[in-house]
Amino acid sequence: LQKLIHLLQATDDPLIQEQALITLSNSAAFSVNQDIIRNLDGLSVIGGMLSDSVPKVKEQALNALNNLSMNIKNQEEIQVYITQVCRNVESAPLNSNLQLAALRLLTNMSVTSDYHHKMINSIPCFLHLLSEGIERTQIQVLKVLVNLSANPSMTKHLLRAQV
């Protein structure tokens, strides 16, 4: 895992980055690896890939963070990227794998109400995707909206949102 994280930092080759992120994402399916990746500063390295210009690299970084977000300590570190992830949802092509990967991460990050406030500005976008997206996009957006709606302090933001 340490070598993969170092590889991500050392290379500019998008194909190598994509493969390293896929491997890290698969490794993160095991809870013991989630802690190891966090302790190796892997979350910030992977999070840094969210600003990559190559959509496939960004998508795989989102997938890796999604798997890593199953851990509360990891969520505490990943939450700094929520605003950027929301921007990825808004700027990604409609119904793209990149958009879906970002929505999946937001779904996990919105299971508890700890970070809902960071998603408030994206509610109009979520509602737009609900009306314009295809079924798989709509389902993922609904998961985020259901999580947000479970928080009473989000009610006014959800009801006042302009689509």
Report on the structure:
With about 160 residues, the chain is mainly alpha-helical. It has helices at about 1-10, 15-25, 30-40, 40-50, 55-70, 70-80, 80-90, 95-110, 125-130, 135-150, 155-160. It folds into 2 domains: about 1-80, Leucine-rich Repeat Variant; about 80-160, no CATH class. The protein is built from 11 helices and no strands. It is globular, with a radius of gyration of 16 Å. Keywords: Membrane, Mitochondrion, Mitochondrion outer membrane, Transmembrane, Transmembrane helix. InterPro entries: ARM-like, ARM-rpt_dom, ARM-type_fold, Armcx_regulator.
Concise description?
This protein is mainly alpha-helical and 163 residues long. It has eleven helices and no strands. Helices cover 70% and strands 0% of the residues.
Please render the helix and strand layout as text.
Blueprint: H1 2-10, H2 14-27, H3 31-39, H4 42-48, H5 55-68, H6 72-78, H7 82-91, H8 97-109, H9 123-132, H10 135-149, H11 155-160
Report the oligomer.
Answer: single chain
Helices and strands, in order, run as: HHHHHHHHHHH
Sheet-strand content, in percent, reads: under 5%
Give the overall pLDDT as a whole number.
96
Q: Major sheet, described briefly?
A: none
Total number of beta strands: 0
User: Based on CA inertia axes, which overall geometry fits?
Assistant: globular
Distance between the termini: 43 Å
Low-confidence stretches: none
Broad structural category = mainly alpha
Q: How many domain regions?
A: 2
**If you compute it from the alpha carbons, what radius of gyration comes out, rounded to the nearest whole angstrom?**
16 Å
Output the number of helix runs: 11
Helix content: 55-70%
Subcellular location: Mitochondrion outer membrane
Protein name: ARM10 protein
Domain Armadillo repeat-containing: 1-163
Keywords: Membrane, Mitochondrion, Mitochondrion outer membrane, Transmembrane, Transmembrane helix
